[in-house]
């Protein structure tokens, strides 16, 4: 089937193709994995049941997680991230099935591990191929959504230019309504001629975009009155991209439409999921590293007099202080003249303290903070209270990082911004993490932390 034939089908067929291909990835990847691991295609009853259950879960989970919403105009990366989350959640359910039955032998654990990556790769490949075909078709003028712009100001002009530059998104501007002139774009009439135009061109226009700032409330209401008989989708582009926004969206509060400009992603179900992720992983990690922690505790005690743990007051979610644990790497009187930010390398330490600080092994007790609920495994690194009070006046957006719990590792750390590095860059990374948070991103950061190792010249 050619791309031209493919994209000329009704949109419902595209959705059906998406659903069919996504579901078929599951048995295909399962069989390929079975052939690789067991050298045969014939599955036993438990594995066959697992595949069937995964397909049933996908039929419910994928739509629920938003995998089949309209992705037109959004980046391929965002769609693939959503697909990764869907497959990961699907597989977590299967992992619980494996764990709570008596089927978790070594070969099946190996099978499920390989199947996870095979299924994930297959799903991302299918989604990428469909997106590539659509993007190519849209660039050539097919599978278009036809739009008219209402507005003649700078915002309307920038909207039109953005649509022109993003050919892959598949939006075609037919013209604009307004009293002014937009260079290079067709003027369809004044604000009071919208209704007449849409009545004549209703089959040639899919959406109406009102490109006006929120300060133009009176004009927007007049335009909406003009559009009262319109059957097209109507969207408002208020021009808020210049603001620093965190998880901005539109919601309902007491039956009132509300634009969220700054909202923590850790609320409702997300907060529960994050808590389960943190407590579960922290418990398993502490169990696994307990021999290492015992050895480090002995090393701290033998290397210098004083307590094993060093406790610092730090700031976490909602600006709440907590006591963060570390293995003590400095003599007990190091900070008797006051606390100074940064310059970790100049702080007095013994040789064992230098070793555990350089390798970040002094941070391991923070998994106890995670278990106690003070911290997350992944999140912005916490800072001391006195420095928070100082930095919040000097660094734009600094306090916004406290919209989530502080973490042992984070997006800033895996990108090299840790210790005595540029605070502004670290805050940029922290806010990017908050704005793009997902379980998949947490797992990615954990993997990158493990892959890059704990040794860092900026560790403190």
Task: Briefly say what this structure is.
The protein has 460 residues and is of the alpha/beta class. It has three domains: 3-139, no CATH class; 145-239, Rossmann fold (3-Layer(aba) Sandwich), CATH 3.40.50; 268-452, no CATH class. The chain is built from 15 helices and eleven strands.
List the strand order in the largest sheet.
3-2-1-4-5
Poorly predicted regions: 1-10
Q: Spell the H/E element sequence.
A: HHHHHEHEEHEHEEEHEEHHEHEHHH
Report on the biggest sheet.
5 strands, parallel
Gyration radius (Cα, Å) is 27 Å
Class from secondary-structure proportions? alpha/beta
Please give the count of helices. 15
As for the number of domains, it is 3
If you average the pLDDT, what whole number results?
Answer: 82
Shape: flat
Helix content: 40-55%
Could you name the key traits of this structure?
460 residues, alpha/beta, Rossmann fold, 3 domains, two-stranded antiparallel ribbon, 11 strands, flat, disordered N terminus
Task: Describe the protein's architecture and organization.
This protein is of the alpha/beta class and 460 residues long. The protein has 3 domains: 3-139, no CATH class; 145-239, NAD(P)-binding Rossmann-like Domain (Rossmann fold, 3-Layer(aba) Sandwich), CATH 3.40.50; 268-452, no CATH class. Helix content is 50%, strand content 12%. The protein contains 15 helices and 11 strands. Strands 3-2-1-4-5 form a 5-stranded parallel sheet, with helices on one face. Strands 6-7 form a two-stranded antiparallel sheet. β8 (309-315) and β9 form a beta hairpin. The radius of gyration is 27 Å and the shape is flat.
